[in-house]
Amino acid sequence: MKVKVYLGLGTNLGDKEQNLHLAIKYIEERIGNIISLSAFYTTAPWGFDSDNSFLNAAICVETAFLPFELLDVTKSIESFLGRKRKSMQGVYADRLIDIDLLLYEDFVISTKELTLPHPLMEQRLFVMEPLAEIAPGLLHPVLRESMLDLYKKLALYRKTNSYK
User: Which of 26, 60, 87, 133 stands the most exposed, by the fewest C-beta atoms within 10 Å?
Assistant: First the structure.
């Protein structure tokens, strides 16, 4: 059985556009058929200070992998592309590539290894803007709001509170 999953992609080191294109290539080769891909968005770092801006995107993929299998495959792609380690306990750093599992159909999972939907997605413009682009009507399985509505609320909040 194939399911639709949504992944967030990000990079802020090296040739950022090439990093995203390589990640997309390996996602298609190793995970499944790409259903949709957002534009690439240049964004400021989130959760840490860096002189390097990010390039972010969202992608929808059809896959037969189960959630924990998918997590293992995304980690292997990150490692293959040069990522040394994932962020731990809210400590973020510059990275060649980051592949986050955002949504896996309407599954809700909360374990030490994996939380779905991604626990911080609705707080991050760099996730919500590209996700709203490719899946505006998709409902968040916990919040029961569309990706477009969540993006608009977050954008308005950030604009009125001058918070990046």
Answer: 87
Q: Is the dihedral of CA 48, 6, 17, 162 positive or negative?
A: negative
Helix (H) or strand (E) holding 17: helix 16-30
Is 83 an active-site residue? Answer: yes
Q: Determine which one of 49, 51, 72, 83 is catalytic.
A: 83
Any idea what DSSP says for residue 64?
Answer: -
Question: Is-catalytic flag, 98?
Answer: yes
Cα 100-3-26 angle, rounded to 5 deg: 50
> Model confidence over 121-150: pLDDT tens digits?
999 999 999 999 999 999 999 999 999 999
pLDDT digit string, tens, across residues 83-124:
776 555 555 677 899 999 999 999 999 999 999 999 999 999
Catalytic residue among 51, 72, 98, 149: 98
pTM of the model: 0.91
Q: 103: which strand partners?
A: 6
Cα 129-23-36 angle, rounded to 5 deg = 45
